[in-house]
Amino acid sequence: MIKGYIKDFYYNNFLLKALLSGVLIVLPVVLIEKLLSIPSKSMEGMSFVAYTAFIVAALTEEGMKFVAFYFFFWKNKNFNEIFDGIVYAVYIALGFAGIENLLYVFTGGYSVGLIRSLTAVPAHALFGIVMGYYFGMAKFNPGRSTFYLILAFLLPFTFHGLYDFLLMGNSPVLIVIFIPVFIYFWITGFKKMSIASDASSFRDSSDDKIKPGSGFIQ
To answer: Which of 4, 10, 76, 100 qualifies as a FRET site for 39, CA 20 to 30 Å off?
Structure first.
């Protein structure tokens, strides 16, 4: 029992480290986004929306989350199964999203913060699920590590950029498109969680292990 308490204490502190690493990237994200926003001053219409959504927001935020994960957790001995990747990435995302939401409360008021807590914060968690899943696949499929590491950034970046683009477009048509797209994102995220959970080393059956080329676009 004492060993269990020690393990839980260490694991909880490891999750706190993931949460804090998400908090720490807020400052560089804000600074980079300000720099990347400069060219957008000469843009207008959908080009402005696309640039802001994909380059200013998605590229910077998912890029820094990727860096934080790789720097703090990629080579850590406690990263010993695919589901760990999801947990660490989600905590990084929530640490970042929590502080980001506070900044929006300061600038836009509590109503903005409330709306974002129901939309943007869960979205960041979803992007974290996708990123962590592919980090896990990269970790435990060394022969395809580079491929999965690319997906660990590319897919959250694409999801995040598309999410922002559809909302920032301020168009009824884009909102209609947004609803099924976001539902698809969540279905994909939960599917990845289920697959990673089934592949956990704590499950009894070895048949649940994920095998490269098993048919899922891993």
So the answer is: 100
